[in-house]
Design brief:
The protein is α/β, with parallel strands linked by helices and about 300 residues long. The protein is built from eight helices and nine strands. Strand 1, helix 2 and strand 2 form a beta-alpha-beta unit.
């Protein structure tokens, strides 16, 4: 069947309806909505982040991006960023994920490379979502009450080079074989101090891993969004990637290797500002562990 061509009149009518009437209709609509909408205000940062380079030139075998979080203890971000820049293996970039809070937003754009501000409290999940956009080989995360010592990243990189390539963390938990959750058996800055690498079931407080391992946390929806991102990450990485979880050495008397300066972590960690500090989540965490064990999770002690 021969294709029918539009007449001149039809062409003019098409042009009039789409280019003139359409433009006027939607432009006027948009302007009206803009006038009626409440202004949210403009977040003005002292520094604007540089655009990402598409050629991934910043990626190398030891490149690191750090993701920090801001909620109700953002006054400690300055100390955290200073400690990160003082690492013997300093990160390539430092990002800050800011959750919705009822306290004033602090502008750290002059000392952090990228700042993301959310109108939602995504708790601890937002940072792991942001990590999917990291352009470096490694990504590190820190809770807001953790201050790493100078050789922490070097410690992590050496641990990986020595054959313990997995989900690394600063506070590891070996779960009981009787079921449920318990943190009585721990390794790291607030647990067992040893010159050896410790295999554990999950880690928290500070994470260090290859960026490509972050994907595992999103392979399945978590048992609950209220708690247990540390449990979920370690199990998903083991289930889908056979990636184990380790705590690098935390030798007694060699605190420069530690993931956290204890005088900072023990003091700031006591401040009752986070939900998990004021609400007992042990039963919920036990539910998460039991659900994963029923799914086939073999603990490191089994």
């Amino acid at each position: 069947m021969a294709k029918q061509k539009k007449t001149l009149r039809q062409k003019v009518q098409w042009w009039w309806n789409t280019r003139i009437i359409g433009w006027w209709k939607y432009k006027r609509n948009a302007e009206s909505k803009k006038r009626n909408a409440k202004k949210a205000g403009i977040v003005e940062f002292k520094n604007i982040a540089q655009e990402f380079k598409s050629d991934r030139t910043q990626k190398n075998d030891k490149s690191i991006t750090v993701i920090l979080t801001a909620y109700k203890r953002s006054e400690y971000l300055v100390d955290q960023i200073k400690a990160l820049k003082n690492q013997t293996c300093p990160p390539n970039e430092i990002w800050v994920w800011t959750n919705k809070s009822d306290i004033d937003l602090l502008d750290v754009s002059e000392i952090a490379d990228r700042v993301v501000v959310s109108n939602t409290n995504w708790k601890f999940w937002g940072r792991f979502s942001l990590a999917m956009m990291v352009r470096t080989e490694f990504v590190a995360f820190f809770d807001d009450d953790i201050l790493p010592n100078t050789h922490w990243f070097e410690n992590c990189l050496n641990t990986i080079e020595n054959g313990f390539d997995g989900i690394l963390g600063g506070s590891g938990v070996i779960l009981p074989t009787t079921g449920g959750y318990s943190s009585k058996s721990k390794a790291g800055w607030n647990g067992l101090h040893t010159t050896e690498v410790s295999q554990v079931d999950l880690v928290g407080h500070a994470w260090f891993m290859r960026k490509r391992y972050v994907q595992y946390i999103w392979r399945e929806e978590p048992v609950t969004w209220d708690n247990g991102e540390d449990i979920h990450l370690s199990y998903m990485a083991l289930k889908y990637g056979e990636i184990k979880t380790f705590v690098p050495p935390h030798p007694e008397g060699e605190q420069h290797l530690w993931s956290c300066q204890p005088e900072f972590g023990k003091v700031v960690g006591r401040l009752n500002v986070a939900t998990y500090k004021t609400v007992d989540h042990k039963d919920l965490r036990s539910e998460i562990v039991d659900a994963h064990r029923a799914d086939g999770w073999k603990l490191c002690s089994e």
